[in-house]
Amino acid sequence: MPRVAILREESVPLDERALIARILDGDRVAGRQLYEAHAARVHRLVYRLCGDAELAQDFTQDTFVRAFDQLNRFRGEAAFGTWIHRIAVTVTLNGMRKVKRIRERETTLDDGPGFGAVSQRADPDLRSQIAAAIDALPEGSRMTLIMHDIEGYTHAEIAESLGIAEGTSKSRLFEARGRLRQALAAFVRE
Amino acid sequence: MKEDELDERTREALRGYRVPPSPPLDAMWQQIEERHFGAPVVSLTDRASSRPRRRRALGPPSWSALIAGIAAALIIGVAVGRMSRGIAPVIADNGREGQYDYWTANAEPYRQATTEYLGQTVALLTALPAAARDGQPDARFVTQASDLLTTTRLLLDSPAADSDPRLKSLLEDLELVLAQLSRLPSEHGGPELNLITQALEQRDVVPRVRAAAASISSDD
Hints:
The complex is a heterodimer.
Chain A: H1 16-24, H2 28-50, H3 53-69, H4 80-107, H5 126-135, H6 139-150, H7 155-162, H8 166-183, H9 185-189
Chain B: H1 3-15, H2 25-37, H3 63-87, H4 102-126, H5 128-134, H6 139-156, H7 159-162, H8 165-182, H9 190-202, H10 205-218
């Protein structure tokens, strides 16, 4: 599968330490530059995780606000990209749990589908089946599959972002792929 | 379906899982800027068609006023520089004894003004594709381009451009683009805006402006 180095910056080389120092001094131009260097990738990951355009915007905004607010705690031990992606994952997970709780309460009466659910029976198309199978994965396995197989993160980057061991990331990916294969077994028999 | 074929189609389907839409970077930045830094300085995407995500606590300072301030600062800077050159030349310690190096001696104010100007130009240019999609630039957009054009010409006439050929070349490109934008007709300007947007993409103007801003900032 083609891999994309998500956390490596390939565009404008920025002296991020200098930018961070300027942001800490209240320099909004520096803030915009740092934002522009990372926003598209953060938004892409957040959207893949939550699947909702408006939520992805909100979570991306929350991610950067939280990162800027906590910038004085950024030690520079990891790349800024890794650090902000970890914040993005945390913000998105917490946000999705909150939204899920609200939507579950709202849909109790009409018994509609849950957050992010895709009906497997309604559409036999492979793409829909895969989307449904991914949505049905346990949260940790789903995030690992999205980050590794779709967004191209390495296991080291996933481990750093999710706060887990690299071995855990590998086993979650193995589990996710196994479940996908099970879900798609019917296509092999056809 | 065979397993190999299924694997291939599965990979394709995975790539198509929740394909993200193009992120509204400017609109998101407005909210981030407001929440972290306070009221935003630039509100280019505050258009009737944009989705108001949150109310602003304070009205943003007007873009025109900001540009006028920078332009005024540059005019004053250039004037003061020229006056001081005539009255009391500054000899910079650049290893060439007796040679006048105005830029080295007076770089900081120009560097700050240039950085701010480039940041605002990026903001304007990144809003272009959205404006082109809307089909018609609004009057404020044209006014902002006109204000930035004034600043561009002031910078071109300043030691900042004289001392840096790359910056001068960039400013000359921007002068052309901003001159075109500032002359957009108030009606039926959509096709022209599309052409300008395409030309910008072909010449990689926005990445060059960003790189220049980053380079100047890192010299601080």
